[in-house]
Structures
1.
Amino acid sequence: MNPAQEKFKNQIRNPFYFWWGMLFKLPTVLFWRIRITHLDESNCQVTLPYFWRSQNPFKSIYFAAMSGAAELSTGVLCQYALAGKGKFSMLVVGLKAEFFKKANQKITFTCQDGLAVRDLLGRLEPGESETLTMVAFGTNPEKETVAKFYITWSFKRKS
């Protein structure tokens, strides 16, 4: 872990910096009370509570809230891997979701593709771009898989 990654991890886990950053970059994260509960080089866990702000008329969590939490679990890993590595651009270019069970409890999204992101970024030359599909699993407190999101990120190393 380089010093920039250590700084990023400390800031994203600090409630004040997290709140301030999300207020200007992703305000729906605050509205839905999404929280980052774990972050390391290989995986990230994000929780999404079940309450009136995240609920749809069918008494389950709105799919957009789940998509936001899943994207955050992958995007934070990408930002963590990018810290201190130079200039890159990144963009979501694809999203696929599978729903298995009704989401009517707090859902934890886990992405374990941090090492794959690190490896991809390490081999990109200036001007090159590549995509990576990351998987975020959403589980309820009973550890049952509620949803699975496949989020495809595009990375381009700037010269």
2.
Amino acid sequence: MRDIWLIAKREYLEQVRGKAFKVTTVLIPLVFIGIFALIAIAGKNSGVGKHIVIATADPALAKRIREPLIADKDAQMTVDVLAPATQNDRHRLLEEVDQKQIDGFLWLEAPANGPTKATFESRSSGDFATEGRVQNAVNHALVEERLAARGISTGDVEELTKPIDLGTVQVKNGKETVSSALSTFWAAYAMAFLLSFTVVMYGMNVGRSVIQEKTSRIFEVMLATVRPGDLLAGKLIGIGAVGLTQITIWLVAAGLFAGSALGARTLAGGLKVHVSAPEIVLFCLYFVLGYALYSTLFAGLASTCDTEQELQQYSPLAAVPIWLSFGMIAFIVSNPNSIWSVAISMFPPCAPITMFLRLASQFPPYWQIALSLGLMAVSVYILLWLASRIYRVGILMYGKRATLPEMLRWLRYS
């Protein structure tokens, strides 16, 4: 046991004192803050400053559509009206779009004895923001026009079509708690992303550490006094402690920022993300088990490789569960107790991510959390048993990539 802790201490101090730890501790949060800020700014400014034309045979309807588009300060749109419009006007508008004189036009046909047909033509096929604004304006204008046609006064039409803000409240243990679906989504996404990123990153670090020491032949000296199993265990504990240290620094820094005056002003009116004490405890448990699962896998694989390039070829083994988990994020957040959500949260490689998606949406029964953690612990034990046997033989092999039959034979060695 003493050898394990000595190796763990060596791995921990070697990485914490290194320049890479200090740089990544500061740089990684800044990079992701910049990425999310850029996404938020890009989303807010999407479809801004467009110049469109509303072409229809009904000037009154065109005016009703134009008013909300002009009133939308976030859109900052220039909206011209062409009414009444003919087919010749349509050909001219097509040419103006093609020559980039305008960004697009709305062609509206409202026959007296038929359904209204609306077509928005533009240069871009992916301008969802502008298309959404135009569609909402058209629907709102048509409702107003139909109500007015039935004798309802203009004031009553505005009152009847006035939108309302929908408040959301979550019921937890019989108590009402104000909630937000968007806040829930981003909280789940942030926690799941942090888990997946750190677990895989430090799992790969274990594999790289094995490769570096193997290629430098330092293992031959260390194995003269330390058993291979103790060497592997110490390496896993030491690098895992580095990961927990880095995450703790990030969380403390985030807490200090949120409690500061600058943080209060920054978060005022924005998304409010609440993280409870049980979620923090479970985050630590899932990080430790997830890290143990992936790092043990990469340590065993790294012992069969001679270069980091060979180890990189195994990275899809970690990527597949992550892709699967994030591919189901919308479904899990919307249906946290469905059979598919429960099943994937019990699957050990996906559990650290998918269980947190469920936790953010609706706290699952305690027996499901316990079962998920138990299955992960059993998986780690089995994988550790397999990896240690591959590790003790593969670590001394040079110049030859191990084949699957050879690794199966190594498992039979004592």
